[in-house]
Amino acid sequence: MALHKLEDFDTNYRDSFDGDDIKNYEVYSDRDNEKVGTVKNILVDEDGRFRYLVVDTGFWIFGKQVLLPVGRSRIDQNQRHVYAVGFTKEQAENLPAFSDDLKIDDAYEERVRGVYRDRPLESSAALGSTASAAKTVNSDRSTYNYQQEPDLYDMNQPDRQSLKLYEERLIANKTRRKAGEVSVGKRVETETKRVSVPVEKERVVVERVTPNDAGKPAAPGEANFREGEAARMEIYEETPDIRKEAVLREEVKVRKETDREMVNAEETVRREELDLDAPGRPVVDKNDPNYHQ
Fold this sequence. Notes:
alpha+beta
């Protein structure tokens, strides 16, 4: 599996660590606090996980650069120091030299791992014995997995093992708020209305006519002259009876209905993408169905 220098893997890697950079940190042995060199570079795998610190041993072993697995490092950011856990000068002498133009293959990494497996870690019981760890390692380098040796590749600061890529997403939610208020009430209005009612009135009509046999002598005893004789007739008339009556005109029902509509929103979101700059080196896509870790 390919390894890349951190600045080749991501030229803006410092942004992922809030501007921090452990390159040029001084490296000390955790056994006797002896300075063994400085961090010159960091090697990461295809997923951006820290795998090795490139340590320039300076005058300790003049002019030699070696690889220190991240699991054998303890970082003190306050003092800008890296402590190499269980690291000895003998190991530094036995490690294969590293150079900037070196092509790291499985054989080279196995030589590096072999040096660290050969010596148990007396100063860190938590990491366990490399001898016992070596028994669990798959001997086939083509199927080697860094997780097989957590004492070599599990970093003490897990959040510094890999580059974390973030993206922004639009979250659609709803909040219920009062949009207004509708009040339905009654009021009394007055108006003048006219109504017509036909009424009848009786009246007496007196009609005086001359009979056809006028002037004809009356028969004896037919003419009866009596004083005070009168004809009476009752006269009636209608008077209007106007009054008001309340009647049910209509009924008003008040209810609420919910209208649904789709609201479209548009916003610019950001996403971090991985820039892999590794000229001449194979790039492995772990999403490829033919990929085998």
